[in-house]
Amino acid sequence: MKFTECVGLPAYNDDQIVIKTKGVSMQFKDIMTAMDALIGFDDYEPGMECIGRVVAIGKNVARDPKNNLQIGDPVVAFAHKYGHLLRTYGVADPLSVQKIPESMYKVEYAGIFIVFITAYYSLHVRAGGIKPGQTILIHAAAGGVGQAAVKLCQLWGANIIASASASKQQFLRETYGLEHV
């Protein structure tokens, strides 16, 4: 990994959006790639998600009636396979950029979107939804996605059984009020 000074906006095409990043999360994939623990990601750069403001919009995106983004909007953006958002300015496809309320435009929120989307997709889409009173086992509940799954299941009224390493069990009990860890 190397650091390079960025001057001015990066190159982008008519189908992309440029975001001035405020915060970038370091996901599991970023860490594993930095440690050379993943095969096939030679072109990967850290930065799977960021929070920032729109600073440029490609011509085709601006003309699209489905586009609701404007310059200056606070957004969260997700990268595709090869990251590239750990930069002063990130380039993203419009389908991976979502406007957020000003109240969520905080650097500490940069890392919550992917974990909650992953947990939601796993529980609601893949597992068919969680019903109130249903019992669910959440493995690795102290990790990012695990904690998001715990919060979602609590919102949905599920009974939670959580697994975690011995050193994290008390954290889960105290933070989330879990009884079965």
Please sum up the structure shown.
This protein has helices spanning 28-34, 59-63, 113-126, 144-155, 166-176, and strands at 17-24, 49-57, 74-78, 89-92, 97-99, 135-138, 159-162. With 181 residues, the chain is of the alpha+beta class.
What does this structure look like?
With 181 residues, the chain is of the alpha+beta class. It folds into 2 domains: 17-109, Quinone Oxidoreductase, Chain A, domain 1, CATH 3.90.180; 113-176, NAD(P)-binding Rossmann-like Domain (Rossmann fold, 3-Layer(aba) Sandwich). Helices cover 27% and strands 20% of the residues. The protein has 5 helices and 7 strands; from the N terminus they run βαβαβββαβαβα. Helix 4 (144-155) links the parallel strand 6 (135-138) and strand 7 (159-162). The termini are far apart. The mean pLDDT is 90.
Question: Rg from C-alpha positions?
Answer: 19 Å
Q: Can you write the helix and strand succession as a string?
A: EHEHEEEHEHEH
Give the number of DSSP strands: 7
The share of residues in extended strands comes to 15-25%
Query: Could you name the ranges where pLDDT drops below 50 across 5 or more consecutive residues?
Result: none
Distance between the termini: 39 Å
Overall geometry comes to: globular
From the 3D structure, determine the CATH topology of the largest domain: Quinone Oxidoreductase, Chain A, domain 1
CATH superfamily of the largest domain: Medium-chain alcohol dehydrogenases, catalytic domain
Mean pLDDT: 90
CATH architecture call of the largest domain: Alpha-Beta Complex
| Count of separate DSSP helical elements | 5
Structural class: alpha+beta
**Spatial ordering of strands, largest sheet:** 4-1-2-3-5
What is the CATH top level name of the largest domain? Alpha Beta
Major beta sheet, specifics?
A: 5 strands, antiparallel
Helix content class: 25-40%
Count of all domains: 2
